[in-house]
Amino acid sequence: MPKFTLRHLEIIAELPEHATLGSAASELRISESALSQSITAIEKIAGEPLCLRRKAHGVSMTASGEYFASMARKIIAQVDELQATFPHQEGKLRGPVRFGCFASLSPHVVPALLEGFPRVHPELDVSVRVGTHEELIPALNSGDLDVAFVYDLLLPQEMNKQVIYETEMQVVLHPEHPLARLERPLELSDLVTEPLIMYQSVPSTEYTMQLFAARGLVPKITASVPQMILVNAMVGRGLGYGLLMSRPNNAELSLEGRKLAIRRLNPPNYPSAVVAIWPRKAQLSARVLALIDFAITAMNESWQRAQPENQSSAGN
Questions:
Q1: CA–CA distance, 162 with 285 (Å, rounded to integer)
Q2: Using CA atoms, how far apart are residues 169 and 270, in angstroms rounded to an integer?
Q3: 90 within domain boundaries
Q4: Of 2, 6, 196, 251, whose CB is crowded by the most CB atoms within 10 A?
Q5: What CA–CA distance (Å, rounded) separates 295 from 164?
């Protein structure tokens, strides 16, 4: 039994855009008679008329033809996407890359990716969405996002993941706080009576509470705020301490320019990581794999640049 070809789909997809066969034939770069013969052949395979061809009234689509054209356009778009997924002979990647990033992580990841990745692959169309796990994971499952960069905390089991860099919880203090003067890593027991400025976000809040619960402790939460920069600003004014994940390019300053003291936290500070995640059912394109590889390299370079500063801070 004859089957539809991609050329058949292209022909029917183009017809609704034209009032006459001559106009459609010109766009398809074939003669009007060849187009008419192709339509007849396609309708024979379909088993019913897809358009009405009348000399005095031009061409118009039947209901079946409109449906056929709509489906054909979708299939052609998918074929174009498939062709853009793989490197062409000249080694270039083309097509869209849609990635997400966890909100508090985004200032440390998104600028480096949006600046550097398009330079390496200028023919890619790169877009980003910033949000929480509650926003990014459904977007991954629906296919609206190709990949997301998040903390490896309380992730669904149906997600694949690739480590971008290792991280752990750190204590953010006012530089004149007595605990900032200690030369040893801090314990949760050192902090339990101090006012905590809680970073309120899924899954960060639950992870912080788990850290204390593992030691049978309950933190003294004086405020819960949804922005990491607000945590730092409040700590910079001596209103409490914060617990935030370590980052490669994290300046020890609040948004107001006030100094902060960042100290290590002893176990049970479970090691974590920033990871790229995507649904297990999804097959990553060459474009997305290239983005993940670039993110690993870019963040590794950021950590290397930050090491002299971290060593200097540790010695203070």
A1: 15
A2: 8
A3: no
A4: 196
A5: 7
309: in domain: yes
Using alpha carbons only, what angle is made at residue 149 by residues 292 and 172, rounded to the nearest 5 degrees? 125
The pTM (predicted TM-score) of the whole model is 0.64
> Which is it for the CA torsion 245, 246, 248, 253, positive or negative?
positive
Instruction: Tell me how far apart the alpha carbons of residues 123 and 147 are, in angstroms, rounded to a whole number.
Output: 19
pLDDT in tens, 206-240: 888 988 998 899 999 999 998 888 999 999 999 99
User: Which of 62, 85, 108 is the endpoint of a domain?
Assistant: 85
CA 137 to chain centre: 10
Pairwise CA distance, residues 93 & 132, whole Å: 29
**CA atoms within 13 Å, Cβ hemisphere of 303:** 13
**Does 240 lie in the same domain as 175?**
yes
